[in-house]
Amino acid sequence: MATRVFVDGHEGTTGLRIHEYLIGRSDIDLLVIDSAKRKDAQERARLLNAADVVFLCLPDAAAKEAVALIENPATCVIDASTAHRTAPGWVFGLPELAADQRAKLRATKRIANPGCHASAFILAMRPLVDAGLVPMDAAITANSITGYSGGGKSMIAQYEAKEEDFDTKLLSPRPYALGLTHKHQPEMAAHSGLKHQPLFQPIVGPFYKGLTVSLPLHLSALKPGTTPEQIHAVLAARYSGERFIRVLPLRDAESLAGGFFDVQGCNDTNRVDLFVFASEQHAMVMARLDNLGKGASGAAVQSMNVHLGCDEALGL
Ligand SMILES: NC(=O)C1=CN([C@@H]2O[C@H](COP(=O)(O)OP(=O)(O)OC[C@H]3O[C@@H](n4cnc5c(N)ncnc54)[C@H](OP(=O)(O)O)[C@@H]3O)[C@@H](O)[C@H]2O)C=CC1
Ligand SMILES: CC(=O)N[C@@H](CCC(=O)OP(=O)(O)O)C(=O)O
């Protein structure tokens, strides 16, 4: 029998994309809410409890409310919001996180989909902490460049406003989260193995999608004797055999057309590309993804596939 799936918030940026991923699949029966009733708690409760798998593509408060409406113990929830990413009882929806993560995703009924910046940060950092190259108590700084679709419908509307309504300040890259308490910092620390939250500083630019987190590392602050070759080897070994993660060659010149890095290079894929650039003193680990692919909707569908045990047969 087909798996019944309901996407709560299916008219939003993340929800629409999940629908696109699932619409053609013969093993999925999509339960669709009448558009006029999409915020009606009673109708949502009916569908939330009728589904085998539910994707929550809602603001945090509405996601918590949706979870409270679910009484069916068989319903598996995949929450795209920030609400449950470090909450007890929830499994982090990053199958590549650790050797036992897929088993945890199969066993649970509560999956918290990672944030887009956090996915990139954690996939770059966790293997280096696990291997002891980055000390667990290191003070880490990271930045991210992202397309504006990461800000959802309201930010998309600002960037795609008609000429007379368009704010020309949006033409330049815009650093944000300068309170230095970005909402992804708690999950970055909780799932990377670091004791302290990183100092994280994102920048949004005038392009629809694509994201790259950069992790600058002083070799002198790492385990004594650490080389860029070791950093690269640890990442390559950790992700060998992962179909959605690619580790590019050390100091990959081919990725730098004219000396510039392309943050949109993973768009329309569910892939993460990892890079290590280095000098004698410093290394820069970079993780690139599509913020609407592996950074959101693609990751959510991948977690569902793992949960259902069809991640090899049916893909993205
Ligand atoms: N965009 C991205 O790259 C990513 C987003 N996320 C997370 O996913 C979630 C959704 O984000 P995104 O798709 O960008 O947001 P959008 O603003 O694009 O969409 C949110 C949707 O939720 C609907 N909604 C709001 N409140 C309710 C409610 N009480 N009941 C039912 N529906 C409601 C909205 O309705 P209406 O159509 O009326 O506005 C809208 O369709 C957020 O928690 C976000 O943090 C996660 C990873 C990446
Ligand atoms: C450009 C922009 O604003 N991006 C969002 C990230 C979107 C995302 O992945 O985060 P959540 O799932 O946690 O919403 C931000 O930095 O807050």
TrEMBL record:
Kindly name one Pfam family recorded for this protein: Semialdhyde_dh
- What is one cellular component GO term in this UniProt entry? cytoplasm
Q: Which PANTHER family match?
A: N-ACETYL-GAMMA-GLUTAMYL-PHOSPHATE REDUCTASE, CHLOROPLASTIC-RELATED (PTHR32338:SF10), N-ACETYL-GAMMA-GLUTAMYL-PHOSPHATE REDUCTASE, CHLOROPLASTIC-RELATED-RELATED (PTHR32338)
What is this enzyme's class at the first EC digit?
Answer: oxidoreductase
Residue ranges occupied by any Semialdehyde dehydrogenase NAD-binding domain in the UniProt entry: 4-105
Under SMART domains, the record lists: Semialdhyde_dh
Q: What does this protein do?
A: Catalyzes the NADPH-dependent reduction of N-acetyl-5-glutamyl phosphate to yield N-acetyl-L-glutamate 5-semialdehyde.
Q: Which domain of life is it from?
A: Bacteria
Location within or outside the cell: Cytoplasm
Q: What is its EC number?
A: 1.2.1.38
**Ribonucleoprotein recorded as keyword:** no
Q: Which UniProt keywords apply?
A: Amino-acid biosynthesis, Arginine biosynthesis, Cytoplasm, NADP, Oxidoreductase
**Catalyses which reaction(s):** N-acetyl-L-glutamate 5-semialdehyde + phosphate + NADP(+) = N-acetyl-L-glutamyl 5-phosphate + NADPH + H(+)
Q: Which InterPro entries match?
A: AGPR, AGPR_dimerisation_dom, AGPR_type-2, NAD(P)-bd_dom_sf, Semialdehyde_DH_NAD-bd
Q: Kindly state a single biological-process term from the GO annotations of this entry.
A: L-arginine biosynthetic process
Specify the protein name: N-acetyl-gamma-glutamyl-phosphate reductase
The answer on whether this UniProt entry bears the keyword Oxidoreductase reads: yes
The pathway noted for it is: Amino-acid biosynthesis; L-arginine biosynthesis; N(2)-acetyl-L-ornithine from L-glutamate: step 3/4
The record's active-site residues are C116
Q: Give one GO term, molecular function aspect.
A: N-acetyl-gamma-glutamyl-phosphate reductase activity
Q: Which family does it belong to?
A: Belongs to the NAGSA dehydrogenase family. Type 2 subfamily.
